[in-house]
Design brief:
elongated; single chain
Length: about 110
């Protein structure tokens, strides 16, 4: 490992990605096995017009104002999922993105 470099991150959670005009991050982290309906909460900076929650690339919730939270149905089976939150600006540009993987070994 190079000097000054931290060890590897968990493959299941990716920190929020910051752009010049905003950031989105998960407050709710799924670290165990997950299925069924669960609340998902985000923290958002900047001025997005909406935040999309995507499960396996499908939009499952669109949030247009705080509080940035929604109920997400992860299905009735324990299968791997990719959960993304994408903040969108008034011009349609992406302002920030966060991602976490569910039901994968860590």
């Amino acid at each position: 490992m190079k000097a000054g470099r931290r060890g590897p991150r968990s493959p299941g959670v990716r920190a929020g990605v910051s752009y010049d005009s905003g950031m989105v991050e998960f407050v709710t982290l799924f670290l165990g096995l997950t299925f069924g309906v669960h609340p998902v909460q985000l923290t958002v900076t900047g001025d997005p017009v909406r935040v999309e929650l995507r499960l396996d690339a499908d939009v499952v919730a669109t949030l247009d104002e705080p509080p940035w939270r929604a109920q997400v149905d992860f299905g009735s089976r324990l299968t791997p999922h990719e959960l993304e939150a994408v903040a969108i600006g008034s011009d349609g540009a992406e302002l920030g993105r966060a991602r976490q993987w569910l039901n994968l070994p860590r």
